[in-house]
Amino acid sequence: MKVDMELCLRCGACVGTCNDTAIRLYESGIVFHMDICVRCGSCMLVCPVGAISEEVGV
Amino acid sequence: MRMDVDVLVIGGGPVGCTVARFAALGGTHTLIVEKRSEIGSPVRCGEGIAPDIFDEIGITKDSRWVRNTVDGARFISPAGHMWVIEGEAVSEEVGLVIDRDKFDKVMALHALDEGAKLMLRTHIEELIVDGGKVTGARGKYMGQDIEIAAKVVIAADGYESVLAGQVGIDTRLESKDVETCLQYTLGGVVNQDRYCDFYFGNSVVPGGYIWIFPKSASEVNVGLGLLLSKVEKKGAVKEYLDGFIKDHPVLSKGSAISMVAGGVSVSMPIKTTVADGFIVVGDAARMVDPLSGGGLANGMLAAKIAGEVAAKAVKSGNVSAETLAEYDTSWRKRLEEKMYRNYLTKELLLKQSDETVDKVIETLGNTKMENVGTFEIIQAIAEKHPDVVKEIEKFFI
Predict the structure, then answer these.
(1) Number of domains in chain A
(2) Of B141, B31, B41, B154, which is closest to residue B99 (Cα–Cα)?
(3) Considering only CB atoms, which chain A residues are within 8 Å of B233?
(4) pLDDT per position as a tens digit, B364-376
(5) Is A31 helix (H, G, I), strand (E, B) or coil?
(6) Residue of A nearest to B170 (CA)
(7) Residue B289 to residue B295: CA distance in whole angstroms
(8) ipTM exceeds 0.95, yes or no
(9) Average pLDDT of B219-226?
(10) What pLDDT does B202 receive?
(11) Chain B residues whose beta carbon lies within 8 Å of the beta carbon of residue A10
(12) Separation of CA B193 from chain center
């Protein structure tokens, strides 16, 4: 997964919605733990501003 | 860095600060840790609240954070029917519009006045668990490793909580129980009346609502919550909200001075909120009201109980899950039944067509109610449209 930090409001909606705790929010940005991520896509849909997308080729 | 405290509260929001205030009042050495560099910022809230909670937790309304007192609420259906609640009928539920950033800071100050300590820029990464018992937490303070030993650890880390899962407390949510929200504070709008407006209907916003809360005569919060299970494409929330504002005769003239977003749970609360040496409270425990999406009042009510029970447990030298269970039992007694009824109402609302929402709002708009309570509302609907409320009536009457 990939976050467009120009759009991201650092609201944490993706963090709380991820049922696998694969996303962490830091002051510096969002970190996806792709070893845990099951690619369910919830974070992309819950993001109020549409800042998250699936990285092509992952 | 290593530290040692009686009660460690993770999260410096109003729930965490209320926990800390009561834990400190109970005579314990209490520390609040907050990952951000400023309490109250960024705001993640509609900023409307019914004032009853402030008596409950012993807080006096304060000009530092009260922005506006509203005269009532208006519920608007897709076809434009309106149901207005105002005057004496709402004596118990008249709302305030507040500045959450200032409110949060004042709540932190109250906690500090009772002797609690606060550390900013402290990001807790994991709980320290020893033989199933929580004995502290570790993370980073200003980028440096920190380890804090505590007799009781309290997770008040909000919607994005990830800590409770570490001791087997399931805080996961289904997409039908999550609202994705966006709000602008708009300035430059002429808004002389003091009503909180709520727009409903699946064509307006699927599985949610739009709110307009007046902060002053020229400043409003306008926001939207959309049910995650109804989101069909990325960024839908912003599209719905921008579209609503663009078509609105008053709001379209304003500009945003702030933009906030967030996830809100509209679920039932988690099954257990305690473990050995550990308590979960507020949004982290999914205590948000599932119908309104309001989390502040429920969270602060539970926070008071959490702080008191934690202090008592520390003093007694027994911080087992059984001792802390007094917190779990007490907050459920106060909140759970109402949350259940509101959860059922939310589920019922979701199933209604726009036509039904129009009919119901029209009926309520034409009904004179002496006291507006859930019972009276259900009764008024049942009289004209018995089919709509048939499934849930028994839980209310």
Answers:
(1) 1
(2) B41
(3) 45
(4) 999 888 777 777 8
(5) strand
(6) A19
(7) 6
(8) no
(9) 96
(10) 87
(11) 42
(12) 25
